[in-house]
Amino acid sequence: MQRTVEEGRGPVRYGPPAPAPGLPVLPELSAVLAAAAGRTHAEPPGGGPALRGAAAAYWWRRGLQTEARSVAAASGAQPLLFALMAAVGGDVLLPRPCPAWWVPQATMLGRAAYHVPTPAECGGVTDPFALLETVRRVRDEGGDPRLLLLSVPDDPTATVAPPEVVHEVCEAAVSEGLHIISDETWLDTLHRPQETVFVSPAEMFPGQVTVLADLAGAYTPASWPAAVARCPLTAYGAALHARTLDLLTAIGAVVAGPVAEAATYALGEPEPVAVRLRSAAALHARVAAAAHRAVLTSGALARPPQAGRHLYADLGPLRAGLAARRVTDSMDLEDYLSERLGVPAPGGHRFGDEMGGLRVRIATAPLLGATPQERLESLSSGQPLELPHVADALSTFTTAFDELR
Q1: What are phi and psi of 150, to 5 degrees?
Q2: Which of 49, 277, 303, 329 is the most exposed place for a label (fewest CB within 10 A)?
Q3: What are the entry keywords (predicted)?
């Protein structure tokens, strides 16, 4: 019998949010927003000069040539991706698994979205040979593939694809005439930035790649929606940028004035912001590593987390223990672990993985403490894993996995 999705469990209307930082808002950032609360003039569609200039400077500091005229800003990554998808046109290809919010944008546009397997060593990018085969199959069946979505520092897998893998994938996509959108939301959450080599697809193929970044990844709270995109510095990129602005205007996806002020400040990376970025990334790295050890000790599988505030676990090796608890697919697993851990643990089906797989995304923010004071203590501690509230949370987490063996 075909299983139906219960009310409240659908991945479109109730898709899981991105992993939160679990930390209080930076006081300096709150002060900027508060100071702009009386602003009465609206931000123009695509962002005003200050916000676009700050985004361009942000990418310049990371070695990516950018001009303010090529930047578009919107009230969150979802409407910005929606506008970019509509501007590019055609069917969409994306890795499996992928961020939960990608497919709904294609669905709302009436576009077909095709999942392509990822290579063994990482998520966030498609296997190049599988991509070529999928493109040819879709075209043989009358489809019109034009766009490939990638997330090199990835949600949900928390991996960072090696540059050689990224290049192979992008080379395959460009050879088939696909435009690429590189979601680099998690770039500034690398766990070991001095050891992890990240190369943007836009550095490899600057004329065929648009870069997207949700500022909620590292800079602003999710409750202050803001995202930026960098279109190629080409005639096609200029046309894509213009079409995107038209669409953002049509759907009213403009950044709120006070939020634009805060985003501009954050993208400038003043000392308080830079310190918070480094401290938060280091904290989540240590907690994620501890959670990863607990997952592996239980007999489950997970790639080592390299970025973000999460990890992606495969509990397939624990299928017998889970079956004894009436957990046989990822929906069951989501329900079971969410109840057992006391926090949402979205199953792999939310990210395009097979329903029969026993995969789950685990966020690290709930392990930092239950109150703002505890979370700030975790942030400032030299040994956060030894704090009682972190140790207790990790103990509960470890026990939940150990009992499945």
Answers
A1: -130, 155
A2: 49
A3: Aminopeptidase, Aminotransferase, Hydrolase, Protease, Pyridoxal phosphate, Transferase
pLDDT, one tens digit per residue, over 86-116 is 999 999 999 999 999 999 999 999 999 999 9
Closest CA to 352 of 136, 174, 106: 106
pLDDT of 4 > 60? The answer is no
Cis-peptide, bond into residue 305, ω within 30° of zero: no
> How does pLDDT run across 362-400, given as a tens digit for each residue?
999 999 999 999 999 999 999 999 999 999 999 999 999
**Considering the entire predicted model, what is its pTM?**
0.95
Quickly list DSSP for 145-185.
EEEEEE-SB-TTT--B--HHHHHHHHHHHHHTT-EEEEE-T
Distance of alpha carbon 275 from the chain centroid = 22
Cα 150 versus chain centre, distance:
10
Q: Which residues of 90-112 are buried (b: 16+ CB within 10 A; e: fewer)?
A: bbbbbbbbbbbbbbbbbeeeebb
Taking alpha carbons only, the member of 102, 107, 100 closest to residue 16 is 100
Contact status, residue 344 vs residue 337, Cβ threshold 8 Å: no
Strand runs (DSSP E) across 4-55, as ranges?
A: none
Domain residue spans in the chain? 40-269, 272-402
| Homologous superfamily, domain 272-402 | Aspartate Aminotransferase, domain 1 (3.90.1150.10)
How do residues 237-282 score in pLDDT, each as one tens digit?
999 999 999 999 999 999 999 999 999 999 999 999 999 999 999 9
Q: Are 229 and 76 in contact (CB under 8 A)?
A: no
CA-CA distances (angstroms) from residue 69 to 53, 182, 314?
Answer: 9, 19, 43
* Domain covering 40-269, topology: Aspartate Aminotransferase; domain 2 (3.40.640)
Q: What angle do CA 79, 85, 89 make, to 5 degrees?
A: 150
Q: Is the dihedral of CA 322, 327, 328, 330 positive or negative?
A: negative
